[in-house]
Design a protein that fits this description.
- The protein contains 10 helices and 16 strands.
- It has helices spanning 8-17, 19-31, 40-50, 112-128, 150-156, 217-235, 273-293, 313-327, 346-349, 386-402, and strands at 56-59, 67-72, 75-85, 134-142, 168-175, 183-185, 188-191, 194-202, 206-207, 242-251, 257-258, 261-270, 297-306, 309-311, 332-334, 354-360.
- It has an 8-stranded mixed beta sheet, with helices on both faces. Strands 10-12-8-13 form a 4-stranded antiparallel beta sheet, with helices on one face. It has a two-stranded antiparallel sheet with strand order 7-14.
C-alpha cells in the first residue's frame, strides 16, 4: 500500500494549521490530569473538542469515561480504528513547564495528553475530508491504560460493534527518548506482557538471638531473588527473552524479632505468550522449592497484566512506508528492538490487524539518550512533534479508505 491521497505536503500543512488548537487542548488536559478509568474532566474536554465536527460521539456509561467517535465517509467501505489513551500517572510534576499539573500527585508523565490532542486534531482533518473516505473512522479515546485495562473494558462495552469490526488499527505513543518527529515501529512483538508477582514466605517467628529456635523466612526470601534470576538464564531461550524484577522485599517489625513471614513483589515480562506461560510455572516451582529448602512454605500469586503487544507484519511495514511518504525518510525508521514495557493496546491488536508506533519528542537541546524519560516527574515533550502525529493518524486512515 502506498501513500496516494491527499498530497503529503498538504497533510503536513493542515496539521501545522491546526497546531494552535492541538497545543491548546494538550495543555488544558495537562493542567488537569486524571488517573484510572474515571476521567470526567478529560472526557468533557474531548467531547467539547469534537462538538463542532460531523462526528457521532458515544461515551462510556458503565466501567469507563471513554469517548468513541465515528466519522462516516461519503461512500461505504471498511472501518479504521485510531486510538489515544487519556489517563495520567501518580507523579508530582517537576518539569518546570508553564502549564504544569495543577493537581499535586498527578501528572501526564507518559504523554497521554499529547495523544488526546493529536487524535482530536486528526479527527478534524479527517472530518474535513469526509468526501474522500470510502468507509468510516473509529476514534478510540481510552482511559485507564496505566494498569487499569481500559482497552479491555472498552472492548467489553462494545467498542468493535459501534461501527463494524475495524480492518486496521493504529495507536501512536509519544516518547522523549527519540529524536523530535521521528516515527519508529516494528513487525511482531513490539512490547512485552507484564504480570505482577507476589510471594509470601512463611516460617516461624522467634527471638533474633536464637534463630535455631525459629524458622527464619528472610534468608529464604533473599535466596529466591537470586534463584529467580538464575532460572531466567537457565530455562529460557536467549532468543525469546524475558525479564523478572523483584522490586519490593518486606519483612519484620524491629531489630530483635525474627518475623514469621517475608514478602516479595515484582513484575514478570515476556515477548511471547509461550514464554509468559512457561515463566508462570517456573516461578512457582522455584519459589516453593527454595522455601522448602529453608524449612518454609511459599504462597505464590501471579496477577495477569497486559498481554504481549504484537504488531501485524503487513500493517507495520505499510506504516513505515506511509511515514516516509508523509514525514520524509529521515523521520521514519524500523524500530531495532522491542520494549519490555507493556501496553493495553495489546487487547485491540489481538482482535484487529494493526500497529503501535512511537513518535519522538525529545526537547530541543537535549540528548534522547539522557532526556528525562516517560514516567519521569521531569518528563517534557516537544510539542512541535505533534504535527507529525496528527498527520500520521490522519494519513493512516486516508490511505486505508481512499486507496
Amino acid at each position: 500500500m502506498r501513500f496516494t491521497s491527499p498530497n503529503p505536503t498538504d497533510l503536513i500543512a493542515a496539521a501545522r494549521r491546526l497546531q494552535p488548537h492541538t497545543v491548546a487542548l494538550r495543555r488544558a488536559v495537562h493542567r488537569h490530569p486524571e488517573q484510572g478509568l474515571h476521567l470526567p474532566k478529560t472526557q468533557s474536554a474531548v467531547v467539547q473538542a469534537l462538538s463542532d465536527l460531523p462526528v457521532q460521539v458515544h461515551t462510556g456509561q458503565q466501567n469507563t469515561t471513554s469517548v468513541i467517535g465515528v466519522i462516516e465517509g461519503a461512500r461505504s467501505g471498511p472501518t479504521v480504528l485510531l486510538r489515544a489513551d487519556m489517563d495520567a500517572l501518580p507523579v508530582t510534576e517537576e518539569s518546570g513547564v508553564p502549564f504544569s499539573s495543577e493537581l499535586p500527585g498527578s501528572m501526564h508523565a507518559c504523554g497521554h495528553d499529547t495523544h488526546v490532542a493529536m487524535l482530536a486534531s486528526a479527527a478534524r482533518l479527517l472530518a474535513e475530508r469526509r468526501d474522500e473516505l470510502a468507509g468510516r473512522v473509529l476514534l478510540m479515546f481510552q482511559p485507564g491504560e496505566e494498569g487499569f485495562h481500559g482497552a479491555r473494558h472498552m472492548l467489553d462495552e462494545g467498542l468493535l460493534e459501534v461501527a463494524g469490526t475495524p480492518e486496521f488499527a493504529l495507536a501512536l505513543h509519544i516518547t522523549s527518548t527519540l529524536d523530535r518527529g521521528l516515527v519508529q515501529t516494528r513487525p511482531g512483538a513490539i512490547m512485552a506482557s507484564s504480570d505482577v508477582l507476589r510471594v509470601t514466605v512463611t516460617g516461624q517467628g522467634g527471638h533474633a538471638s536464637a534463630p535455631q529456635n525459629a524458622v527464619d523466612p528472610v534468608p529464604a526470601a533473599a535466596a529466591m531473588v537470586g534463584a529467580l534470576q538464575t532460572m531466567i538464564t537457565r530455562t529460557l531461550s536467549v532468543f525469546d527473552p524475558a525479564v523478572l524484577t523483584v522490586t519490593r522485599i518486606t519483612a519484620g517489625t524491629t531489630s530483635n524479632i525474627i518475623p514469621e513471614t517475608a514478602e516479595l513483589e515484582g513484575t514478570i515480562r515476556a515477548l511471547s505468550e509461550h514464554t509468559r506461560n512457561k515463566l508462570h510455572g517456573e516461578v512457582r516451582r522455584v519459589c516453593e522449592h527454595v522455601a522448602a529448602a529453608h524449612g518454609c512454605t511459599a504462597t505464590v500469586t501471579i496477577k495477569d497484566g497486559y498481554p504481549v503487544t504484537v504488531n501485524d507484519h503487513e500493517v507495520s511495514h505499510r506504516l513505515i512506508d506511509l511515514a516516509c511518504g508523509i514525514l520524509g525518510e529521515r523521520h521514519a525508521e524500523p524500530m531495532p528492538d522491542p520494549l519490555m514495557g507493556a501496553e493495553d493496546f495489546s487487547y485491540v491488536l489481538a482482535k484487529v490487524p494493526g500497529a503501535m508506533a512511537f513518535l519522538g519528542a525529545c526537547p530541543e537541546g537535549h540528548d534522547p539518550d539522557t532526556a528525562p524519560s516517560n514516567h519521569s516527574n521531569r518528563a517534557v515533550f516537544d510539542e512541535s512533534a505533534m504535527v507529525h502525529g496528527v498527520a500520521l493518524y490522519a494519513g493512516f486512515a486516508l490511505q486505508a479508505l481512499t486507496s
